[in-house]
Amino acid sequence: MAAQPAPSAAGSASRGVVPVFPAVVLSAEAAPFTPLGPDGWRLGSPSDVEKQFSRCAAKLRALRADSGQLKEELNLLLDQLLSENYNKTLEPNVNIRPEDVCSLLKHVSCLVPLSQEHLVIKLCQLVHHLLNQLKVIMEERTLDVLLDYTTSALKVCSTWTHSDVLLALSTIVYGNGPQCHKHLRDLLGEDGVLLRYSSPSQPNIELRHVALTCMANICLRIPGQASLDDQYRSVSFRVFLKTLQSPKPPNIDELFYCMVIQAALKGLQCCLSGGKWKFVGEELGSVLAALKRLMFQGTPGVSVEWPTVLYPAPLPQYEGLSAPKPAELAKSSELPSDNKKRKSKGKGKKTSSEESRVDDGEEDIRDTVPALQKGGGREGGRGEGESLSKPSGPSFYPSWKRASSDSEFSDPEGSAQSKLRLYNGRLRQGALHCLLAVVKGVEKRTLYGYWSSFMPDSPIGGPPPLTLVTIILKDPSPKVRACALQVLSSMLDGSRQFLAVAEDTASPRKSYTPFSFLLAAAVRELHRALTLALLAETSPQTLTQVIKCLAYLVANAPYHRLRPGLLSPLWKQMRPYVRNRDVNVRVSVLTLYGALVTTQAPLPEVQLLLQQPEGSSSSSSGSGSFTQQDSALSWRRRDGMSTPPTPVKPSLRTSRTHSPQVVRTPEEVDSSAPPWLLQLCLSLVTQPREDQSDSEGAGTGAALEPSPVRLEALQDKTQLMCVTVLLGLTYSENYLVKTAAVRALGVYILFPCLREDVMFVADTANTILAALDDRSPNVRAKAAWSLGNLTDTLIANMETVGVDFQEELSDMLLLKMLQAATRASADKDRVKSNAVRAIGNLLHFLRQSQLTRSAFQRPLEDAVLALVKTVQSEATMKVRWNACYALGNAFRNPALPLGKYSAPWSCDAFSSLCHVVSSCKNFKVRIKSAAALAIPANRGCYGDPERFICVWRSLAKALENSEDTNDFFEYRYSASLRHTLSHALLHLLSVSQSQDMPSLGASLAGEEGRGIKEHLIRYLRAEEGGGEGAEGEKETGGDSFTPQQRVGGLQRTLNRLKELEAEGEGGGDEATSKEMVVHFLEDLLKTCEEL
Question: Which residues contact 225 (CB under 8 A, 6 or more apart)?
Answer without folding.
Answer: 175, 178
